[in-house]
């Protein structure tokens, strides 16, 4: 059974750095083809993909946020992290840790769908 | 980035109705499209990937179609549990993007 759970601060001040942790179980990010991402959703708004990390260490970022984001993994602890620098009130959102689908031999050269989601963590940016 | 546009933004329907939601991509994405259902306060859940493939456990009343730039999600006979918000997602590009969502409401 795949489970994911996000943790981190509920409240962050503007200009500070936000660090989120995802603890997962039921699979290993060292397995070939495994990929994970972070997605966020501002209150009442649509989903926005932020960053991705692959089993082989490759990292990919949202075009609009790439200068502020860092994604990392700790294979031994089954954890994935997201760091966002210089946060602003517009970064207020629920942040989700997600596992990307396993496509086998039928894969897009771009990305994948998201087959397992954490419950999400609401992060508010306010002074 | 590839823009994804869903229509309508809101859809009112009744139990038993057949409904269709449309998602248009700003460029050809082949069949690299997924659909998600999200209920209030919950994480989204994938209901279709590769335009028309249902993951295990998804009821057969859901179906997806289309390719290229135009896609549809159809629910053949609405059930009370289906009233939710639906999102499409293109994964043709490495920078994956979502539609703005379609809220399916009880009429």
Give the SSE layout.
The complex is a heterodimer of chains A (127) and B (107).
Chain A: E1 3-7, E2 11-12, E3 18-25, E4 35-41, E5 48-54, E6 59-61, E7 69-74, E8 79-84, E9 93-100, E10 114-117, E11 121-125
Parallel strand pairs in A: 2-11
Antiparallel strand pairs in A: 1-3, 3-8, 4-5, 4-9, 5-6, 7-8, 9-10, 9-11
Chain B: E1 4-7, E2 10-13, E3 19-25, E4 33-38, E5 45-48, E6 62-67, E7 70-75, E8 85-90, E9 97-98, E10 102-106
Parallel strand pairs in B: 2-10
Antiparallel strand pairs in B: 1-3, 3-7, 4-5, 4-8, 6-7, 8-9, 8-10
Highlighted features:
heterodimer; A: 127 residues; mainly beta; seven-stranded mixed β-sheet; 0% helix; globular; B: 107 residues; six-stranded mixed β-sheet
Description:
- The complex is a heterodimer of chains A (127) and B (107).
- Chain A is mainly β and 127 residues long.
- Chain A has strands at residues 3-7, 11-12, 18-25, 35-41, 48-54, 59-61, 69-74, 79-84, 93-100, 114-117, 121-125.
- In chain A, β4 and β5 (48-54) form a beta hairpin.
- Chain A is globular and about 45 Å long.
- The model of chain A has no long low-confidence stretch (mean pLDDT 96).
- With 107 residues, chain B is mainly beta.
- In chain B, strands 2, 4, 5, 8, 9 and 10 form a six-stranded mixed sheet that branches. In chain B, strands 1-3-7-6 form a four-stranded antiparallel sheet, with no helix packed on it.
- Chain B is globular and about 35 Å long.
- The interface between A and B is medium-sized, with 21 and 26 residues.
Summarize the structure.
The complex is a heterodimer of chains A (127) and B (107). With 127 residues, chain A is mainly beta.
Structure class of chain B: mainly beta
Number of helices of chain A: 0
Distance between the termini of chain B: 35 Å
Residue stretches of chain A low in confidence (pLDDT < 50, at least 5 long) are none
Largest sheet of chain B: 6 strands, mixed
Q: Spell the H/E element sequence of chain A.
A: EEEEEEEEEEE
Percentage beta strand of chain A = over 45%
């Amino acid at each position: 059974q795949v489970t994911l759970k996000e943790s981190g601060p509920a409240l962050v001040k503007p200009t500070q750095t936000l660090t989120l942790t995802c603890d997962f179980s039921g699979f290993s990010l060292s397995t070939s083809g495994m990929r994970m991402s972070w997605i966020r959703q501002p209150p009442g708004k649509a989903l926005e993909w932020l960053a991705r990390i692959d089993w082989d260490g490759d990292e990919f970022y949202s075009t609009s946020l790439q200068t502020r984001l860092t994604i990392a993994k700790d294979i031994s602890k089954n954890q994935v992290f997201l760091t966002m620098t210089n946060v602003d009130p517009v970064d207020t959102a629920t942040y989700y840790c997600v596992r990307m689908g396993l496509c086998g031999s039928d894969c897009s050269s771009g990305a994948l769908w998201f087959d397992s989601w954490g419950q999400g963590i609401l992060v508010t940016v306010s002074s | 980035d590839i823009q994804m546009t869903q229509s309508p933004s809101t859809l009112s329907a009744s139990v038993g109705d057949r409904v269709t939601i449309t998602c248009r991509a700003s460029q050809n994405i082949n069949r690299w499209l997924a659909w998600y259902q999200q209920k209030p306060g919950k994480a989204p859940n994938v209901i279709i990937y590769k335009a028309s493939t249902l993951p295990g456990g998804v009821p057969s009343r859901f179906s997806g179609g289309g390719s290229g730039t135009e896609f549809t999600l159809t629910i053949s006979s609405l059930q009370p549990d289906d009233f939710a918000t639906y999102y499409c997602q293109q994964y043709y590009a490495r920078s994956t993007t979502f539609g703005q969502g379609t809220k399916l409401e009880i009429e």
